[in-house]
């Protein structure tokens, strides 16, 4: 007893803080539950197994949800893209969402205007199911009349890792990207700016961590952002019919690099020079990774000065 009293005397402020925090959390949970918002933690059975399996330590400790949590365990098809785009692209988005929803997949997207909303509504209006992953404002969105009927019919789930009363912040929108991708078995990037914006950042994150097993980009030769993502390794999704254009973007990149290494001859080129000549859309680390891969495959050699050159003809490992 004396030891307990001594511990309390030494740590009274800390104990008071923790007790107060626990009471505040209980009050907050009651507040959200009264509004129909459930709070689920990592240990709850309703917590998505895909987050546990794919995000590991990056999974959110708490999720705020409204709607049918069983949708989380269905085969997911993610669709992401820009807020501002053309009516034709929005129609394409709705049509693909409808097709996948009719096929039994749950459409996963954000809750923003543009591609996100077109995907969600395309699925719901065709009788399918959807998950809207929100970066903020869940307490406001849950009051939306356009969503209410679908929540009540168990076909829509609203999900957020942020406090339901939180306001928009760029970092939250960026952080939300991985939560969308991780709920899907396949994803299509419908529209993206070149090297800027949340869609581009989310795609780069997928190229690095691959929390979604298969990510595609809509085939559009007029979109600099989508073409650049294809060059970085994301294959084209050929059309609303679900066809996939089978290309190997890495091999296409190799053809460009190979041409310039040939022009440079035995002197070779440094990474920055290669990137500039082929107008490479990715970062220096990714180009270095590609060159390292080609070096291991016997396509190039790295010289003592750090430059890369094609292996000489006649060498056993060379393809030239």
Strands, helices and their partners?
Layout (H helix, E strand, L loop, with lengths): L1 H33 L3 E4 L7 H6 L7 E6 L8 E5 L6 H16 L3 E5 L4 H11 L4 E5 L3 H4 L3 H8 L3 E5 L9 H12 L4 E4 L7 H13 L4 E5 L5 H8 L4 E2 L6 E2 L3 H16 L6 H8 L5 H13 L3 E3 L5 E3 L10
Parallel strand pairs: 3-4, 3-7, 4-5, 5-6, 7-8, 8-9
Antiparallel strand pairs: 1-2, 2-6, 9-10, 11-12
Helix pairs in contact: 3-4, 7-8
Keywords for this structure?
single chain; 320 residues; alpha/beta; 10-stranded mixed β-sheet; two-stranded antiparallel sheet; 12 helices; 15% strand; globular; disordered C terminus
Mass-distribution shape: globular
Helix-residue proportion: 40-55%
Global structural class: alpha/beta
Taken as a percent bin, the fraction of beta residues is: 15-25%
- The low-confidence parts are 314-320
Mean pLDDT: 87
Distance between the termini: 82 Å
String of helices and strands: HEHEEHEHEHHEHEHEHEEHHHEE
Radius of gyration: 25 Å
- For the largest beta sheet, what order do the strands appear in spatially? 1-2-6-5-4-3-7-8-9-10
- Helical segment count: 12
Query: Using DSSP, what is the number of strands?
Result: 12
Biggest β-sheet: count, sense, barrel?
10 strands, mixed
